[in-house]
Amino acid sequence: MKYSAAGVDIAAATRAKELMTTAVRSTHGPAVLAGMGAFGGCFDAALALAGMQAPVLVSSTDGVGTKTLVAAALERYDTVGQDLVNHAVNDILVQGARPLFFLDYIAVAKLDPIQIAAIVSGVAAGCRAVSCALIGGETAEMPDIYAPGAFDLAGTIVGVVERADLLPRPDVTAGDAILALPSTGLHTNGYSLARRIVAQHFATEGYHARPSLLGGQTIGEALLAIHRCYLAEVNALRAVVPVKALCHITGGGIYDNLPRVLPKGMGAELVRGSWTIPPICQLLVEVGGLAESEAYHTLNMGLGMLVIVPTESVATAQKAVAEAQLVGRVTATPTVRLVDG
Fold first, then answer.
1. Alpha-carbon distance 190 to 236, whole Å?
2. How many angstroms separate the CA atoms of 67 and 301, rounded?
3. Which class does domain 177-339 fall in?
4. Which reaction does it catalyse (predicted)?
5. ∠ CA 67-307-312 to the nearest 5 degrees?
């Protein structure tokens, strides 16, 4: 027997690597000593961390979940790689870190070089945008694990921050203001619920349906909106105000994520109507009949990144980043609540 008879095509893997090479190498700078083709990526830490007093490495691993099924259904693979990188950058940003390098992992039932190259090109585009080196990865063809047409996408990021600049700061206190940087849609969470709502209520047209609430967009286009990266906005805020804490609203929504960055015994109140809810979130809530608690526990509902600053810094923060919306405050009660204004 040959390996190809068992469902693994080594020649296709080689072709995929050839197609992605230019995109991957476009993310490399002087700090990358070994990348594509090496058994392990090599990164010159002394060069990348030069001038830092007490550098702390911050790492995170995550995936894009079942958003890959939407991409596969629409045969559009150029966005999920950017989703992956932006999600990872936001996660380490919460602790104050800037990205250094990234590694991706793609698993498929049957390897299509064009598809894989499109995914990795998206990863590379996300890395280039934040000056992050894509120094390695893995493409696995596993026909007995994944269903035909399905794929999985995950990645690991490593960043760095000065120890003195680590977030959250210990001086978060009741009364501090909570600002929100808006999301572009679902980002990379809640897709298992979203797919089921679409399947049940838009069975005929599916992702190609154009509900009036979406203003001409198809449901598929709205669901594939790229997970936004907040690095530039957070850097702009940190340059002018004392940012005390950041919170990336991912799986678990506001209820599970905000407590992760607040001191023990503290909570938050977010004021209903003080930010814009993306049309795709409104659609899923209305059509799916989601209770408020379920919606805010599953979806970001427009709250992409929350920023905690002193109350007296709000005006300065909004001048630096105009789209930062004042949405609530830190409280001395250890719960996260939605309240009326």
1. 29
2. 17
3. alpha beta
4. 2-formamido-N(1)-(5-O-phospho-beta-D-ribosyl)acetamidine + ATP = 5-amino-1-(5-phospho-beta-D-ribosyl)imidazole + ADP + phosphate + H(+)
5. 160
